[in-house]
């Protein structure tokens, strides 16, 4: 009996142990099933966009970003290429002012001397009017195909049509060649976007200021070329004869010199790196995806589609960007003011004393503009980057506008000066006026480029250049008409004609100053 009881107890314990073992196995299986479900339901690890930037193999923009991440210094070589290209694209504009008055006179389109300003204004306006229609298409082109192709085509147009402008024998040939140059030279918007993309964020102010300083150097070289190389057979008869091509076409030499410099700039474009991120090619492989192997392809496709839709929507909404539109409005108004000033100054300085002008020669005008350009260049390279660190952009614009108004109000009284006194005063006034104009332009450019993303900068700058070119087209035309009217009404009104002329010009600056104090809805500009 005892043995049987022991045997039954052993069997009972064995069954209990087996039951416990089965129960343990079932619990283990349940845990495994739950873990498996958890693993299935858990999405794959996705690296946050802010933590890791996706790089596309073969994308020039990504390649440049990698270079900028490793090189923290200033990209001097890239900045130099930008500077050279910006210089050559601006020279055809600035070189025109010293000899435009004499060119219109020699084309014999004006019936009397007072009408020269009227016709000269339309020559200056044609370039900007044509650029008005081409700026947005050029911006879209730069956003799709890259900044570099746009820059190269623009430089080629300078080489061709600036040369043809110098060979103009009729007023209408000058108008047409000038218009084609403005239509095909779409560099202004893309070069500003390029300057802000080719470097690290902390160097953007320097990059954009270099674009402005290249135009400042065009103020130096352009008037020098136009003032000293125009009419070479008369100025340098020992070198150029009346029978030579430069004697038959007295304004061809300055245009030819600029075209040669543009050809050099075109060669320099070979070393320009592309900054646009070209991710629209589906065959391009993501190198980060190969390294991490954690991003699900379907999620990537969905994110790419969402990014594409956001890009379309944001591009359509550029006109609703209050920050951007305020910057563009200021830029356009002050561009009209600056262009009208240059047109009036170049005509007023060479006009006769009997019309309350200064009776300067083209060389005298060239020297004044050269000195002003040197001052702008030094200011933009040395002083403006320091100014940008400590003075808010709107404060820069407002201060420069106020001082410019007082400076311009004093211009008519300079006609009462002669000799060295006149030259000293006019050079100081012109230097300060152009430095303040460059400060306003640079501040507006920074405001524009910081108001949008990189994908939108080409189109945004295209919109900016379109409106600015429209205002600049109005500027020379209206300035020429007003100048012609002022010369015909030197006396007989409540103020002399020249004082009314500069007073009307100051009205534009006052409008820009008032706009700088405005705050569009949702816009807080520093």
Automatic annotation (TrEMBL):
Protein name, entry field: Uncharacterized protein
Lineage, uppermost ranks: Eukaryota, Viridiplantae, Streptophyta, Embryophyta, Tracheophyta
């Amino acid at each position: 009996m005892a043995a049987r009881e022991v045997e039954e107890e052993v069997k009972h314990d064995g069954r209990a142990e087996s039951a416990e073992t089965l129960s343990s196995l079932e619990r283990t299986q349940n845990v495994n099933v739950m873990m498996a479900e958890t693993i299935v339901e858990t999405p794959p690890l996705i690296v946050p966009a802010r933590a890791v930037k996706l790089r596309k193999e073969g994308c020039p923009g990504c390649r440049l970003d990698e270079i900028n991440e490793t090189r923290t210094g200033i990209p001097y070589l890239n900045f130099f290429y930008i500077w050279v290209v910006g210089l050559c694209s601006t020279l055809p504009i600035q070189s025109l002012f010293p000899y435009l008055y004499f060119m219109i006179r020699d084309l014999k389109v004006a019936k009397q001397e007072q009408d020269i300003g009227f016709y000269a204004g339309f020559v200056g306006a044609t370039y900007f009017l044509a650029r008005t229609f081409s700026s947005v298409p050029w911006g879209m082109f730069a956003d799709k195909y890259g900044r570099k192709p746009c820059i190269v085509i623009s430089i080629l147009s300078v080489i061709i049509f600036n040369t043809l402008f110098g060979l103009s024998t009729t007023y209408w040939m000058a108008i047409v060649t000038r218009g084609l140059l403005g239509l095909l030279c779409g560099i202004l918007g893309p070069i500003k976007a390029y300057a802000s993309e080719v470097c690290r964020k902390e160097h953007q102010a320097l990059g954009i200021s270099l674009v402005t300083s290249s135009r400042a150097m065009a103020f130096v070289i352009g008037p020098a070329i136009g003032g000293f190389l125009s009419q070479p057979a008369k100025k340098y008869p020992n070198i150029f004869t009346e029978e030579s091509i430069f004697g038959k076409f007295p304004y061809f030499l300055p245009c030819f010199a600029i075209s040669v410099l543009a050809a050099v700039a075109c060669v320099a474009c070979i070393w320009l790196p592309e900054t646009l991120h070209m991710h629209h090619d589906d065959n391009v492989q993501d190198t980060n995806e190969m390294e991490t192997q954690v991003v699900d392809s379907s999620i990537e496709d969905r994110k790419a589609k969402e990014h594409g839709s956001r890009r379309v929507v944001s591009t359509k909404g550029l006109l609703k960007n209050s920050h951007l539109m305020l910057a563009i409005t200021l830029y356009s108004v002050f561009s009209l003011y600056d262009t009208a000033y240059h047109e009036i100054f170049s005509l007023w300085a060479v006009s006769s004393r009997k019309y309350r002008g200064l009776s300067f020669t083209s060389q005298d005008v060239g020297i004044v503009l050269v000195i002003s350009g040197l001052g702008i260049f030094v200011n933009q390279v040395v002083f403006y980057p320091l100014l940008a660190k400590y003075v808010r952009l709107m404060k820069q614009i407002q201060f420069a506008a106020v001082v410019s108004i007082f400076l311009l109000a004093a211009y008519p009284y300079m006609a009462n000066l002669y000799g060295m006194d006149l030259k000293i005063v006019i050079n100081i006034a012109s230097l300060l006026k152009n430095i303040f104009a460059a400060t306003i332009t640079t501040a507006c450019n920074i405001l524009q480029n910081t108001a949008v993303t990189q994908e939108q900068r080409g189109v945004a700058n295209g919109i900016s250049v379109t409106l600015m070119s429209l205002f600049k087209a109005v500027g020379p035309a209206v300035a020429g008409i007003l100048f012609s009217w002022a010369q015909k009404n030197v006396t007989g009104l409540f103020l002399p004609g020249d004082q009314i002329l500069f007073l009307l010009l100051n009205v534009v600056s006052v409008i820009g100053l008032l706009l700088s104090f405005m705050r569009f809805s949702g816009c807080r500009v520093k």
